[in-house]
Amino acid sequence: MAVNSRQKRLSPGGFVIRTILILWAVTTIFPFLWVINNSFKPSEEVINTSFALPKEVTLGNYTNAFEKHNILKAYKNSLIISGTVMIVCMLLGSMMAFGMTRYCFRGKAVIHSLLFASLMFPVYSTIIPVFRNMAGLGLLNQPISVILPQAAGNLSFAAVVLMGFLKGLPLTFEESAYLEGAGTVKIFTAIILPLLRPSIATVAVFSFLWSYNDLLTQLIMLRKHSSLPVSALLIDISSKYGTDYGLMASCVTLIVIPVLIIYFILQKYIIKGLTAGAVKG
Predict the structure, then answer these.
(1) pLDDT for 155-202, tens place per residue?
(2) CA-to-CA distance for 238 and 229, rounded, in angstroms?
(3) Domain spans of the chain?
(4) How many C-beta atoms lie closer than 10 Å to residue 273's C-beta?
(5) Taking Cα atoms as reference points, which of 131, 130, 96, 79 lies closest to residue 203?
(6) What is the pTM assigned to this prediction?
(7) What is the pLDDT of residue 96?
(8) Helix 60-67 and helix 71-102: axis angle, to 10°?
(9) Distance between alpha carbon 153 and the CA centroid of its chain, in Å?
(10) How far apart are CA 170 and CA 26, in angstroms?
(11) What are the pLDDT digits (tens) for 36-45?
(12) Under 8 Å CB-to-CB from 237, ≥6 apart: which residues?
């Protein structure tokens, strides 16, 4: 008689693993809850009782973040930059994966090797020549000065993930479409892109979050206060209002919450895309 899986005893190894995962979850979640708790306190109360619940909940810190520091403008800048980087990586990455996995051409092996080799070099190692090029073109303090290096830095990762997924897909649909007279563009848009949806979602989330959190590139390329994204705005606020811990906590909360929302909504696509690419690639 089969034993219900819920009635099975937990092995010692499983108990240790679950204990470690629970402790890891607690240490990861606690700092975020601590920041949210302090965001509803005045700065003096944060200093005196940072680990206690607020004596009186106040929204003054959030009011200052929106009214005095124009955090909505910073959100807009972040969405323009990170959204554009995400779209560019999705589109160009899928086109690169389609060409590299479905066509044979001279120099393909070299390009394939260079594509993987580029993942070994940190993006920040090229920040000085990139900055000089942007300054020479007069693009500093504009979103394009951040979009171009971030998109270039994410493109190799996007292409590798999509190539791993596309290599495992059968050629049956494409061959049938070719026999029916469909062209390359039609096959790519009507067949390849729908099949790549799980991996494209993975690329979209990772490229968006990487761009959203890329503080160094934002600080180097953008100097005007009105052009700062939310991550760079937090540094600007901390340098001017470093002792206002309540304001800092509210700004950190406002910056992290959108990332968590995006991750929770798309987490199943992230896992599906990565595991599918790993198995089929």
Answers:
(1) 999 999 899 888 888 888 788 888 888 888 888 888 888 888 888 888
(2) 14
(3) 60-280
(4) 26
(5) 96
(6) 0.79
(7) 92
(8) 70
(9) 12
(10) 43
(11) 888 898 888 8
(12) 69, 247, 248, 251
Give the HSE-up count for residue 170: Cα atoms under 13 Å, Cβ half-sphere.
5
Query: Are 78 and 230 contacting, i.e. CB atoms less than 8 angstroms apart?
Result: yes
Structure tokens at 6: 């819920």
Residue type, 10: L
Per-residue CA distances from 159 to 92, 126, 141, 177 (Å): 8, 20, 29, 24
Find tokens 């990170």 and name the residue: 82
Q: Is 127 left (phi over 0), alpha (psi -120 to 50) or beta?
A: alpha
CB 158 within 8 A of CB 207: yes
The CATH number that domain 60-280 falls under is 1.10.3720.10
Q: Looking at the chain, how many residues does it have?
A: 281
- Do the beta carbons of residue 14 and residue 218 sit within 8 Å? no
Tokens of 75: 């959100």
Q: Give yes or no for a contact between 78 and 147, defined as CB atoms under 8 angstroms apart.
A: no
